[in-house]
TrEMBL record:
InterPro entries the UniProt entry points to: Methyltransf_11, SAM-dependent_MTases_sf
Segments forming domain Methyltransferase type: 25-121
An MF annotation (GO) of this entry: S-adenosylmethionine-dependent methyltransferase activity
Biological-process GO terms, alphabetical: methylation
Residues annotated as transmembrane: none
Keywords: Methyltransferase, S-adenosyl-L-methionine, Transferase
Name of this chain's protein: Methyltransferase
Length: 212
């Protein structure tokens, strides 16, 4: 499998999984790799994507899971048109999907979080500043080296089905604007820049008072 920038950060995202979490929503799940990781941890995972083609590949990949663990529940839908249950999910993830929809979609995701729940966004931003270009330059040689290594290992494996490429769109918001809008819509959230042209947003919904 070719090197995937989103897959590279799976472990980082899982560090923010709340203790005792039982339910998760994966927005823009694609071929389901992160959703399957969540399900493998025992979570009831609702995985949503607007592309029927990539969901077909996700369901096919489910059949290759050999450990007998749980599997995601996939839904072919546009998350902006979906009526999500209020206060239901302990964990909501968006991996390189938020820039495909209006940023204020995070308002609906915030409402769908259970008290104490966590929203994590592995997002893409538009490069516009010298800082952006500097991070891009730093990432380029690392990215090239990893792709060469992964490509070499792939050539040694038997050929399989051609990978399905989810729909892509260039990000339209630079990081400063993302920070401003996130601060207004997700008070108390934290955002940090990552390598490979990504940022990490983490928002934790206030838990109910003890005894409530």
């Amino acid at each position: 499998m070719p090197f995937d920038h989103n897959d590279h950060y799976h472990r980082l995202l899982l560090r923010h999984l709340p203790r005792g979490c039982r339910t998760a929503l994966d927005v823009g799940c694609g071929t389901g790799r992160f959703a399957r990781r969540l399900a493998g941890l025992g979570l009831d995972v609702h995985a949503v994507d607007p592309s029927a083609e990539v969901l077909a590949r996700a369901r096919a990949a489910d059949g290759e899971v050999a450990d007998g663990g749980g599997l995601p529940r996939y839904e072919h839908a546009d998350i902006t048109q979906l009526e999500l249950p209020d206060g239901h999910y302990g964990f909501i993830s968006c991996l390189a999907s938020l820039h495909h929809m209006p940023f204020d979609t995070v308002t609906a995701l915030r409402k769908a979080l259970a008290p104490g729940g966590v929203l994590v966004v592995l997002g893409c931003y538009q490069e516009k500043s010298p800082a952006d270009w500097g991070w891009g330059l730093a990432a380029a040689p690392v990215n090239a080296g990893i792709r060469l290594a992964v490509g070499a290992s792939e050539r040694l494996r038997p050929s399989g089905t051609a990978p399905v490429k989810p729909p892509v769109a260039p990000p339209g918001m630079p990081l400063p604007r993302i920070r401003r809008e996130a601060a207004a819509l997700l008070p108390g959230c934290r955002i940090r820049r990552l390598l490979f042209w990504r940022y990490l947003l983490v928002f934790r919904k206030e838990a109910l008072p003890t005894g409530a």
